[in-house]
């Protein structure tokens, strides 16, 4: 995270620490700002005085004169019960309540008068006196406008018409709605801490030299102002006004943390400040509402002078401390960025490479500022990239299987389309940036935690956020929840549960619901990645900033929620998105046209969930999400509203969001003004990609999905949609080889089965695994491989440029050149690595043989077709890269070749079986089908064709045995419907025959 730089601050500090005698700047005492009183103030004060006189003195005088004392003069309860209830009785009861209301209002006046005159803190609350105390506050404020010191500390009469709740809250009302999630993070910069220490030490020495007085040269103080309308003072605004940069509020917090304020409380969170509190300011603070040590400031009241004197004697600097306010631990309510821990160094046969940070797990140090043409937004979003990549692979596999089974006409056996342009760059960025291992660990860790808590009969704690830091997982709780189950342990305080990366790796898959499916990445701060739990927020999360910047944040959040790997099910409602993201996850995403439809939909959803929780007897969705009460109604509903709602709609959304966290509903709403009713957490996205939340202590490098990348991602998913019509790309494979004798390759690699290479010398033993793996990746991507994709596949933890280039040089030297001098490893016009056509794999030959047999020469020549299909099936020696070393070739998890190869082998076996059955050679057909089943044992088409070929032998016993074997393989799921129908046709008595064979 970029650090603040302030030359003025540094120079001032340097002068003091150096003991220079030069006079500090701005030595003239600056009084507290006092608003000038107007004629209107005197008019308001007069009417307020009359109103107070009537209410406090006139009301009791009138009651005493007209109604008298409301209580009986004797205490005889039994006589009271026996007495008749008359009109006088009701009058006495009414008079009693009027007296009670007067007494309550008088108490409110006294409390407000005391607080206003003392200027200390927020007035105490009189129980049950909301409206009365509000009225008393306004009248006292108006009356004291003519006082000497009260004008700056009281709100105006203009607030009288506002809502009771809004006026009843103190300055920290907005912050108190935020449950202490992201309080001020601990100061990390040693330079800043040292500067504060020097400043404090110098101030203490100077105070001691002056005989213990509070004279400290240019030390300045600021008094927190009361709210004006809906505006509340905050440290961010104070820093912005007087230090020129709102982000310097951390310095103010460090100087004043845990120091006793005039009202007896302490500053423990940057977001929780109160009117009347005093803040010591850095020496370079400027502005008219500051005061220096106030001996020479006659306009400052003696009480305020004394408070500042007393406050100046508190804090570490008063005892000559070393600036512990910047580094010391806070109170239990203090929540900060998780403590950093060094990541363990993994054992890796690859050359040593620096370990990347949590925000750039797959970006090498040398590549951090250079993307080689790939979108930086996706390179810096490892969890989002992993989710998109996994969902895209699943979509492509669906398309392959549906094509193979004829679900989509005209596309059977077709290769997935090869992306081009922006879509190709985005796909490469996903391959480079994805962290599937991190997603797997996060998912297993959260589910394992839920299972452990369920085993102990403990409820899931409310989690506001998760931090991924150096491979460790920190859960930030809404409140302390006791000791976590092992291997989790308490973090830096009671509201952090921590799990190390090593402990997370010991978790296995467990059969339990995802406990926190609403977690979504927002960005990185320092070396930690933040995931906010949207469904746990007690209200709306508002996002302000430019429209395009907001849209990039919304798109990133929506895409990750739709494709993440730590959720089971959810509904994501999108409103106001320029690009419809529904193709990413049609089962999760729904798109509504406007805010009106959203309000109507969410009103119904809120009612339904409240009723469901009440009927189930649960307090919240967390108590019903795991265990025997699991149900789809506990899945989260997350609303992403990119369009700014109208004032009326905003109020409706605020009402719906008031109870949303208990119901598992989250709201992220965009606003251009940054002022949204009901917003519990307010964030802002800047044009520089920073996500700011000053009251939460957040300044993140935001995770974004800009419009261009959003369109390219959607294009990838649309092209892979299995329901697209047959008007897609042609069915010709992207790469065919010459299968004639003249087309014998110079380098031939066997990938289908054990990995073998023919035509090359065996490389150096230490580098051989890397070279073989790099060549396999290139052979499986004849369209070309981006250099960064290659390096991220071989070194998932990152690698420097020189190591990657050294490997490519060795790979070029190993592959050599063709007879015409052309290197066998080249680059295309986009800079991607490509292999020459003289370098061929058996998978390339297998594709070419099948294509030539079914669409080439084999179409017109039966003999040629049979020979080509037989040659193709002979190439199949087992699964892809059958003997690959453990821990390597992890990039295969991103590929769909594990689905392509079985389908290609099955298509070849079916075609050869058909070829033999045409001539009545059932045994040959069975032999071909069995050969294909060794590679594609789950392909229903092969089993059905095997049943037909066996039936052609006219041997019921053999057919019955095959049926029994097929039933045994199907397990508890039973036979597929089409296979069962085929058996009914071929062997109507198969059920009885199978049962008899099993009994025998």
Q: How is this structure best described in words?
A:
The protein has 1000 residues and is an alpha/beta fold. The protein has 33 helices and 22 strands. The strands form four sheets. It has a 14-stranded mixed β-sheet. Strands 2-1-3 form a three-stranded antiparallel β-sheet. A three-stranded mixed β-sheet has the order 19-18-22. A hairpin with a 2-residue loop joins β4 and β5. α26 (842-855) runs antiparallel to α27, α27 crosses α28 and α31 crosses α33. The longest helix is centred in the first third of the chain and has 32 residues, at 87-118.
Question: What is the distance, rounded to the nearest whole angstrom, between the alpha carbons of the first and last residues?
Answer: 74 Å
Give the overall shape.
elongated
Quaternary structure classification: single chain
Share of helix, binned: 40-55%
SS field, number of helical segments: 33
Biggest sheet strand order reads 6-7-5-4-9-8-17-16-15-10-14-13-11-12
Q: Main β-sheet: number of strands, strand sense, barrel status?
A: 14 strands, mixed
Q: How does the helix and strand content classify structurally? A: alpha/beta
What is the average of the pLDDT values? 76
Radius of gyration: 37 Å
Low-confidence stretches: 1-35, 148-217, 317-336, 340-371, 407-413
Share in β-strands: 5-15%
Tally the beta strands: 22
